[in-house]
Amino acid sequence: MSSENKYESSGASSRVIEDVMKGKTVDKNKSFILTEGGLQETDVISFPHDYDDFSRCKKLLDNHPEWIDEFKTEMSKISNTWRKIVDIWFELNWLYIDGKNKEITDKLKKCV
């Protein structure tokens, strides 16, 4: 395995962050989900869905504080869901510090 394929983080959503921050192209493959209103097109780029996913992303960014400003700009371009997550990133960090795991998951679910 080449060093290009090695990830520092273990979660899919944190690996998306790594790819973006390391200048790699992230595929925006489209899929469809069934909603009450019918089929809706959605991106399948991974994003944090719950506390555990968020904590892996946060730890990655804690290890690379130089990424945080660019992270907010670049991840907002990836998908609407990522833009919503980036918009509340500061709040999610405080919930993490306060140990409010369920609240993090609830807020992330509202971003989808």
Task: Write a compact overview of the structure shown.
This protein is mainly alpha-helical and 112 residues long.
Give an overview in words:
The protein is mostly helical and 112 residues long. The protein is built from six helices and two strands. The protein has a two-stranded antiparallel sheet. The radius of gyration is 14 Å and the shape is globular.
The largest sheet, given as strand count, sense and whether it forms a barrel, is:
2 strands, antiparallel
Supply the number of helical segments: 6
Output the helix-strand order: HEEHHHHH
The low-confidence runs, each spanning 5 or more residues with pLDDT under 50, are 29-34
Instruction: Give the strand line-up of the largest sheet.
Output: 1-2
What structural category characterises the helix and strand content? Answer: mainly alpha
Q: How many strands appear in the DSSP assignment?
A: 2
Straight-line N-to-C gap = 34 Å
Estimate percent helicity: 40-55%
Note the overall shape: globular
Q: What number is the mean pLDDT?
A: 81
User: What amount of the residues lies in strands?
Assistant: 5-15%
What is the radius of gyration computed over CA atoms, rounded to a whole number of angstroms? Answer: 14 Å
